[in-house]
Structure formats: C-alpha cells, structure tokens
Amino acid sequence: MEPQIRKGALQMIVFEELVYQDAQRMKLTVPEAKMDQAMIQFRKQFSSPDQYQEFMKTELGGSQQLLRAKIRRSLLIDAYLKQMVADKVTVTPSEVKAYYDKNLDKFHMPESYAFQSISTIPPPNATAAQVQEAHKHAQEALRQAKETKSYEQFGVLAEKFSEDDYRVMMGDHKAVDVANLPPPVLAALKNMKPGQISDLIQIENFYTVIRLNAHNAAGTKTYDEVKESLRKDLETKKTEQLRSALDKKLRANAKVEEL
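Above: the chain's sequence. Below: its structure in token form.
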C-alpha cells in the first residue's frame, strides 16, 4: 500500500499549496484576533511548556514568526476552502427525498439477528484430550452465561471466556444477515427471544453460546429513519465533487514539478 499512500500524500501537498497560492492571489486575509486565538489553541495541544519549547526548538528553530506564518497559511487554506467548497455545499430536503425515492433498494434491510457469543475453539489438529478440555471449558462458559442478566454481564463474560475475535467487542456481532449465519446458530436464534441465552451449540470443531439481543425483520427503512444520515452522505459526496473539480481547475493553471 505504500505507493498509494505516498501518491495520496503528494496529491494533498500539491492541492494545499495550489489552494494557498490562489488564496494569496485573491488577497484573502486572516484577522489578527483569529490569528492570536489560533496561536493559543495550538499551544494548548502540548501537555507542558517544556514539550512546547522542545517542539519549537526542534521543528521551527525557536522562531515564533515562523510558527505564526505556518498557522496563517493553514487558516488561509481553511478560509479559501470554506469559500470555494463548504459554502457551496447545499443539499435541500427535496433533493434528499428525491434520492431516497429513486434508490429504495439501497434502504432495504434483510432479516437479521443481533447477538453476542462466547466461543471455545480447540487448537488445530487437537488431540482427543484437547477436544475434551475444550468441551469442558465450553460447559463452564455455558453455566456462567446462563447466570447473566444483561448485555453487559454477558459481554464481560465473553471478554473472559471467548476465544474468537469478537471477545474484544464484548462478544457483540451486531446485526448479522440470516444468509450469513451458520445453520446451527440460525436454528437456535429462531427459537429464542431477546435476552435469552442458548444452550451449547457445536459448529464443526468448536462450541459457542449465544445471547439474542434483537431480531430485525426484513423491510425497507422509512425516509424519516434515514433522512439525516442520507443528507450528510449527499453533502459529503457533493463536497468531494467540488474539491475534485477545484483541484482540476487549479492544476490546469499551474505548473507542478515532482523532484
């Protein structure tokens, strides 16, 4: 991924420099009061005066003037992008509704189950003794799981007992499409109510205990459910389009050399 990362970083450096040069051409300015506030905020990011002084010495040769110039440059870039991009990004309610109506398939939600799990996984090529030990471990996890009364209690137990990747998330699988569930797990979930704990479920060579948190029926999300997130998504898309068009325009009138 390194070449892609380098390319993306270089493109951003060039874009910001072209923006800065155009901001200067347009004679944009930063009020001194805003500069002073930005200097104060920059200093606050350091945990101590000594850390700040070490940064100034190492990165800027101790020059407050150079620091002020760099902050002014950053604020000019922000002001330019606000004027040329952010202020032009408007998505009306009618646009959001029109997009929703034309793309109903994107808001269809398949039937899913939200659940937590505690899984016991024997090592590869496990011996009979190791399989027996895994089963014993799973039985103990089941016993303690049956005693839990909440999402949090089951989650803490998952962090302690579970041996799969979900243990770091309190065993939470969130909502899983029924099409992606192992048949034994799906069979168990179909006979459970939210808050219930399953019996021990064997899937190939490992065991799991699950807690059902929610059963979500298939359906289409209503406009009211998605309108706010959809508006933000459309604003993000429009912002990216405007930035891309601006980048293309600035590059068309500039000479960029990579040394």
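Strands lie at 108-109, 112-120, 172-177, 201-203, 206-216, 219-220.
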